[in-house]
Design a protein that fits this description.
single chain; mainly alpha; 20 helices; 6 strands; 66% helix
């Protein structure tokens, strides 16, 4: 087999990996190991990089990292393998949830992306958009997702067109725009069915269910979760645990207590046996809310402490508010905290050190704030109870060098860090923001 044919086999393997074709990827992995006696140095490096990419597909991240660490990029940064070297490094870090590291590798890969074909350019911008979304850089993420969608559409690559629409759906869901999010998800469903990709179709159906559940349309959400549940593969353990959670939650909310308890028990057993700590806490919280109210306080405290340690402020915020609401509020804290002039009680057990730019939840570890985040929080505290427009915030904190969308993103990032205190800063439907201490 000559070098051109050998490269074609490797390219076919990469296509199978990209498209989550597990069986075909495994078959081509065996063929590459058994039949390809490579002599060309570029193809040898390409094979090793694809081997790492295959291990990432299998979620064997430690082996993938070990393999990638032993490789070196081509000396010429315009070489086509320069792109794959950094792109696959970025993909590994993305799957490890190290989104800033992933984006740093993607920046290196982007230097040579324009020399590749349209579909690989689309692949790059889709992955970069996904990392930007996870890193809360929403405007840039939407731009890159739209760029990727256009590149894939030019070649009728329905699988990736669906992925881009799904990502755009997540964006609009985060913004609370139910109709727009639903429209993008339905487009994603249309494209993925044209691509005849069952595993990706399940993820889109699941996302539609989550969309409805998060907006308290539990009757509409439940059929989506029931539909996808039997279709998950064994390797989809995160989705299995999450689906148990939503099936249980929807049933409880709809008054189907027996079904809800059955899903809850099975979900807890699954989360424990698969060491899914996050969803063990989520399911225990459901149990405390709907089955065993007497256990609420210790269960909620343990869960919130867990999510604080993991810096998962979305769930810290959600469960803190839920616990406060269920217990008709917690005694208000005294303000300011008398531990120094610069240490202020923001509210809901959160303290802010204005000079050193950090926040902390009671006795938990300190969380650093950027200079802008610190200035933004100080500004809100100084104008407690006042409705402040995005334009005023932009002028005071950024000297006018930021758009309203940038202000919104900055406040979103700050509130992620504020955790239980995030609800104290509220965006008003009429425009503007207001901070109110408890």
């Amino acid at each position: 087999m000559n070098a051109n044919k050998q490269k074609q086999v490797l390219d076919d393997w990469y296509e199978a990996i990209k498209n989550f074709e597990y069986e075909r990827s495994a078959q081509l992995n065996k063929r590459v190991d058994a039949d390809l006696l490579l002599k060309d140095e570029d193809l040898i490096l390409y094979r090793q990089l694809l081997k790492a990419r295959y291990l990432i597909l299998l979620k064997d991240h430690d082996k993938a990292a070990l393999l990638l660490d032993g490789l070196h990029p081509p000396a010429n940064e315009h070489h086509w393998l320069h792109y794959y070297f950094y792109f696959f490094h970025g993909h590994l870090e993305y799957n490890r949830k190290n989104y800033k590291k992933a984006l740093a590798f993607y920046a290196q890969a982007e230097r040579t992306v324009s020399a590749l074909n349209d579909e690989e350019c689309g692949e790059f911008y889709y992955k970069k958009a996904s990392a930007l979304y996870r890193d809360l850089r929403f405007e840039r993420s939407r731009r890159d997702a739209a760029k990727a969608l256009a590149l894939f559409a030019a070649h009728a690559h329905y699988k990736r067109m669906a992925d881009c629409e799904n990502l755009l759906g997540l964006h609009f869901e985060d913004r609370g725009e139910l109709e727009s999010a639903h429209n993008h998800y339905m487009k994603a469903l249309y494209y993925i069915r044209k691509a005849k990709n069952t595993s990706s179709e399940n993820i889109i159906l699941y996302n539609i269910g989550v969309l409805y559940a998060n907006h308290r349309h539990f009757a509409e959400a439940l059929p989506y979760f029931k539909r996808v549940f039997p279709k998950w593969r064994e390797t989809d353990n995160d989705f299995i645990a999450q689906t148990y959670y939503f099936l249980s939650k929807c049933c409880f909310q709809l008054g189907k207590t027996v079904q809800g308890k059955d899903y809850l028990d099975k979900g807890l057993a699954y989360a424990i046996s698969h060491n899914n700590v996050d969803y063990r806490h989520h399911l225990k919280l459901l149990e405390a809310k709907f089955v065993d109210p007497a256990s609420r306080q210790p269960v909620y405290q343990e869960a919130v402490s867990h999510f604080i340690r993991n810096h998962d402020w979305t769930f810290v915020n959600e469960y803190s508010r839920e616990f406060i609401s269920m217990n008709n509020g917690i005694a208000k804290e005294k303000r300011p905290c008398q531990q120094g002039a610069d240490l202020v009680s923001v509210g809901n057990h959160l303290y802010f050190h204005a000079t050193e730019s950090w926040i902390a939840f009671d006795k938990q570890e300190r969380i650093g704030l950027s200079r802008k985040e610190s200035n933004l929080l100080k500004f809100f505290i100084a104008h407690e109870g006042e409705i402040i427009s995005a334009a005023v915030i932009a002028a005071e904190i950024w000297k006018g060098s930021i758009q309203a969308s940038g202000v919104r993103q900055a406040i979103h990032r700050l509130k992620k860090k504020l955790g239980p205190a995030a609800p104290l800063i509220v965006g008003r439907p009429q425009g503007g923001y207001v901070y109110t201490s408890p």
